[in-house]
Amino acid sequence: MSSHALHRGAAAGPVCRSARRPAARCSVRAMATAAPPLTFSKYQGLGNDFVLVDNRHSSEPVVTPEQAIKICDRNFGVGGDGVIFALPPVGDTDFTMRIFNSDGTEPEMCGNGIRCLAKFVADLDKSQPRKYKIHTLAGLIQPELLADGQVRVDMGLPILEGPKVPTTLAPTQGTTVVQQDLVVEGKTYKVSCVSMGNPHAVIYSCDGEAIKPGACSPQPQSSHQLAGIPKPACPPSDSNGASARQIDGLDANLAALGPKFERNSVFPARTNTEFVEVLSPSHVRMVVWERGAGRTLACGTGACALVVAGILEGRIDRSQPCRVDLPGGPLQIEWRASDNRIFMTGPAELVFSGALRV
Ligand SMILES: N[C@@H](CCC[C@H](N)C(=O)O)C(=O)O
Prior knowledge:
- It catalyses: (2S,6S)-2,6-diaminopimelate = meso-2,6-diaminopimelate.
- GO terms for molecular function: diaminopimelate epimerase activity.
- Its EC number is 5.1.1.7.
- This is diaminopimelate epimerase.
- The protein is an alpha+beta fold.
- It folds into two domains: 6-155 and 350-356, Diaminopimelate Epimerase, Chain A, domain 1; 162-340, Diaminopimelate Epimerase, Chain A, domain 1 (Roll), CATH 3.10.310.10.
- It contains five helices and 21 strands.
- It has helices spanning 28-32, 65-72, 111-125, 254-262, 300-312; strands at 6-7, 38-45, 48-54, 82-87, 95-101, 134-136, 139-145, 151-156, 180-184, 187-195, 199-206, 209-210, 225-226, 229-230, 272-280, 283-290, 294-295, 322-326, 329-335, 342-346, 349-356.
- The protein has a 19-stranded mixed β-sheet that branches.
- The protein is globular.
- The ligand N[C@@H](CCC[C@H](N)C(=O)O)C(=O)O binds next to helix 3 and helix 5.
């Protein structure tokens, strides 16, 4: 599906920017000198949605962090979890990826985003399924477009040394933080810390109980607590559009709990946080609170991090790929024993294309 529209309103800003003169009364000459509209395409990977910009003509993003915040606004803008740029290559790569979160901050990497970016560039260049070398702030990442439409990504190596994640939590396995206690709101969470270029805090248990969802129910959420996460009313209200695709009750209360982890002082660069339930040694499900984006329907780097953490915690079997069910759908993750590289396979789809004034 593809449409072309000129978006107006707060995200785009009025065509005439004079504060004294409303856009409707701008002169024709003023409108004629306005910057040309920015063309974009919106893609989504399991409901983690991004505004993609072809920025290959310039090494600096054509959109500022402040503009990205407006573009990502779901009411006044295009709507998205971030704005992603395809920039000129660095070294022996095909191109560079940069991304601004919906709060305007710049993360090092985005797993769902890089699948979307590979599809975006392939669509722009009308190229056949192929493998790309993409330079990111997290190093070289290599997505490959598969014949079935899925994208398989060589995500590189996880970073396990606590200070490099970064976290100030004390290591428990060599230099790695695995199942370390962290008290949040009076509950003790067992936290494992993994970086996929960006930081992740992975939680499989709280107060001695495995993270487990209750069935989504129309009851008020106050009477029911499982592993520290209250059961939701059904559907829970949420400002990020995630309510329709929630997994049972795992993501209830996420909007209150997530920021307590994201901005906890033990994570000096803030953190993404994944709450995970083990269904079998090769099948888990999760909900995520993302740094800089809040509750999202999927997090590719998070899915990789939680599989690494699950293996380190002895919960996931490393000898086979693991299915990770995210609120937006499943990803397949493999942490290859032969060379420690992580591979992520999942979808990426065009939603629509458009143009806006920034
Ligand atoms: N949704 C992404 C992660 C995006 C970056 C994250 N919010 C951060 O700040 O680290 C993914 O799919 O990995």
